[in-house]
Amino acid sequence: MSRIDDYRRVARPGTVDFILKLAEQVKGRRFLHVTGGRLGGGAAETLRATVPILNELGIDARWEITGGDSAYYATARTLQAALEGAERVLSEEGLARWVDMNGLNAKKLDLDADLTLVHDSQPASLVSARSGGRWVWRCHFDCSSAQAGTWTFFRTFAGQYDAAVFSLPGFEGRLGIPMYVVPPSIDPFSERNRDLTPREMTEILGALRIARDKPLLVQVGPFARANDPLGVVNAYRLVKKHHDVRLVLAGTADGEPERLELLSQLLEVAHEDPDVVVLELPAEAHRQVNALQRAATIVLQKSVRTGFDLGPAEAMWKGKPVIGGYAGGLAQQIIANVTGYTVYSVEGAAFRIRHLLNNPELIPRMGAAGREHVRRSFLITRELVDDLALVIHLTR
Fold first, then answer.
1. CA distances from 381 to 15, 18, 246, 253, 285 (A)
2. Would residue 129 count as lying in a domain?
């Protein structure tokens, strides 16, 4: 477990001292996070680091999770997808079950705090059971295109919060409460981002059967059409005409029919081309993702629709140039012509890949610029500053 002083080695000078000064103003305050689970990346990965640090700083920080039966989880997943804009059907019975189950969660959980931060949609209706303190809804996804009927239903709960926090301007839905923007961050000491020894790299890549005898193009992310893995394959094919490269596509399918169909298509491509490697990894495969990003020559994130996926920040922290789509938070992370490139098409992605391979001196230069960009804007220390400022502002 990393202590706050460990971050002096990676954060910008003065950042940790500033965090200590902010923490002095809220020592003893009770700060509660509530999520739908403890596994995976994103908010859960950040909380695994920040909650212990906040306690070390003298803040009474806790983390609770909601749970339920299979029908509850199914409704929560469908609700999340509809809030993200996907066409989904939600039954009144299912939504009532979701509300009732969170009512039971509220009775089981200790929700007494000065500031309660409820993350995303699964635990959102807990706010109906609030008894004191300030409550904030922390939305990590883009809900600006939510299905109208679903948003009307969900807003009856979101509107009960004292404030809402979004990852990017434009990600918010229509609400009559104060709204704030706090971009997400990465923990440089997590399994997904910590330094790996040469021996660890060799062992992990060997287990994945990834050879390093030619430049590696790597894309990590769910096998979803929003991430356009087939477009990445087509860009690779255009590059392959001029450069002997290998493509690695790593991600999860989560058992969803549409993603499984896409994965099947990708596996068929890999069967026909030995230089295309498709890896279906569990959500907890953090060390494997870490090794793949470190082994990459160029990291791709050619999403056509996304929230604030931190894959580019992770790769840039490891000194890699990133070529990504112009969607969601990707354009916030990738500084065009400095840390990588944003592209709009298969041909654009292929052109930028070829440009980097033809000018190899740009690769470490962009990688170094990317690491500094992440140090300034996307490390967990910056999110700690934002969280502490929020506690100070809302509990004064």
1. 7, 10, 35, 32, 24
2. yes
Lookup: tokens for 126: 């807990």
pTM of the model: 0.90
The pLDDT tens digits of the residues spanning 127-176 come to 999 988 999 999 998 898 899 999 999 999 999 999 999 998 888 888 99
d(C-alpha 313, C-alpha 319), whole Å: 10
The DSSP secondary structure of 213-276, one letter per residue, reads SS-EEEEES-S-GGG-HHHHHHHHHHHHTTS--EEEEEE--TT-HHHHHHHHHHHHHHHH-TTE
pLDDT band at 95 (very low <50, low <70, confident <90, very high): very high
Q: Say how far residue 58 (Cα) sits from the centre of its chain.
A: 28
How many structural domains are present in the chain? Answer: 2
Beta strand 163-166 with 134-139 is parallel
Count Cβ atoms below 10 Å from residue 129 Cβ, excluding itself.
13
Residue with tokens 């929700």: 111
For residue 234, the enclosing domain spans 198-377
The rounded distance, in Å, linking the Cα atoms of 394 and 197 is 43
Q: Can you tell me the distance from the alpha carbon of 230 to that of 382, in angstroms, rounded to the nearest whole number? A: 35
191 in a structural domain? no
- Give the burial class of 107: count Cβ atoms within 10 A of its Cβ; 0-12 exposed, 13-18 middle, 19 or more buried: exposed
DSSP string for residues in 142-162: --TT--HHHHHHHHHHHTTSS
Instruction: Specify whether the CB–CB gap between 299 and 248 falls below 8 A.
Output: no
Residue 247 identity (one-letter amino acid): L
Question: Residues 166, 248: one domain?
Answer: no
Half-sphere exposure of 349 (CA within 13 A, CB side): 30
Round to whole Å and give the CA distance between 293 and 275.
Answer: 17
Are 68 and 87 contained in the same domain?
yes
Any domain includes 139:
yes
Helix and strand counts by DSSP (H, E) for the chain: 14, 12
3-state DSSP helix/strand/coil % of the chain, to nearest 5: 45, 15, 40
* Among candidate residues 143, 138, 144, the one with its CA nearest the CA of residue 181: 138
